[in-house]
Amino acid sequence: xxxxxxxxxxxxxxxxxxxxxxxxxxxxxxxxxxxxxxxxxxxxxxxxxxxxxxxxxxxxxxxxxxxxxxxxxxxxxxxxxxxxxxxxxxxxxxxxxxxxxxxxxxxxxxxxxxxxxxxxxxxxxxxxxxxxxxxxxxxxxxxxxxxxxxxxxxxxxxxxxxxxxxxxxxxxxxxxxxxxxxxxxxxxxxxxxxxxxxxxxxxxxxxxxxxxxxxxxxxxxxxxxxxxxxxxxxxxxxxxxxxxxxxxxxxxxxxxxxxxxxxxxxxxxxxxxxxxxxxxxxxxxxxxxxxxxxxxxxxxxxxxxxxxxxxxxxxxxxxxxxxxxxxxxxxxxxxxx
Length: 337
Fold this sequence. Notes:
The protein is an alpha/beta fold. It has helices at 13-25, 39-48, 58-64, 79-88, 103-116, 130-140, 180-191, 281-295, 303-322, and strands at 4-9, 29-35, 53-55, 69-72, 92-95, 120-122, 147-155, 195-202, 212-219, 224-230, 240-244, 247-252, 261-267, 270-276, 326-327. Helix content is 33%, strand content 26%.
C-alpha cells in the first residue's frame, strides 16, 4: 500500500488529542517525525505514538526528516512563515486554521506552494462531518428551494481565552479565529457561493481579543447569513438553521465537532430527521489530504479556501473598526464539496 510520510509540528492539545491518533490509525499515513520547541518535549510525544524521529526545532526537521508532508499544529502567528519554509523544503503542508492572519500572507503562502509544486491544505475539519455533505446536497438539490436566510451559532466553551490566544496580535480576533473561521468556511461550502459584503459587531470592543463576534453576510445569489461566534456563552445550542422558499433545515448540536446532533429537513409538507455522532472528522480530513497528495490532485480544503477565509476575516476586521458594511474581496473560485 502506498503511504505518505508525515511529520507533526507542534505537540499541543490538538496534536495529542486528534492529529497524531488520526495519522497512526490511517493506513495510508505513516507518522515518521515530530518537532516541538524543545527536543525533550518532541521526544516524549514521539515515544507516545511510536515515532522514530524527534526534533527540537522546525528547521532541523525540515533539513533532516524524510517526511514528505507536515501538519502545522502551531500557534496562529507562526503558520505563514512555516508554510513558506515547508514549501522551500519541498514538503506538502496541511495547516491548522487560520492559514494566515492577513490576506497578503495567505496569498504569499498559496503562491509559494504553487511555485514549489507542493500541495497546500487547511484543516477545516468540520467540512468532513457527514451532516455537511448531506445539508449541502439537500440545498444543491433544491429540497428547500432558493435559500433566503441562514443562522449559525459557532461557540467554543465558555472559558477565558488563555495563553497565546489571549494576546493581541497573536490571537487577532479571538473567538473568530477559534470556532468562527469554521462557520465562515461551512457557509461557503453549504451555499456553494461566496459572500460579497458583510457587517460585524462584537462584545467588549477594545478588549485585548474579542470573545464574541456577530456578523451578517450577503452572498452572491442574495442569501443573508447571520453568524454568532463566541467563547463566552455557557449554554450554546451549536445550531444552524437554513430557511428556503419551500422549506427549512434545522441542525441542532452540529457546529461543534464531537457533539452528537441531528438535522431536521422540512421540504414542503415532508419531514425527515437524521442523527449524527459528529466524530471522526479529523481523521477523514487527514485521509482526504493524504489521498490528494498521493494522487497528485489539489487538496480540499485548499490553500485557496484558506485565502478566501482570510479575506472574510479581514473584511470583518474592517467592519468592526468602522461599524459599516464592507465588501469582501473574493476570488473567482467556488468551494468544492
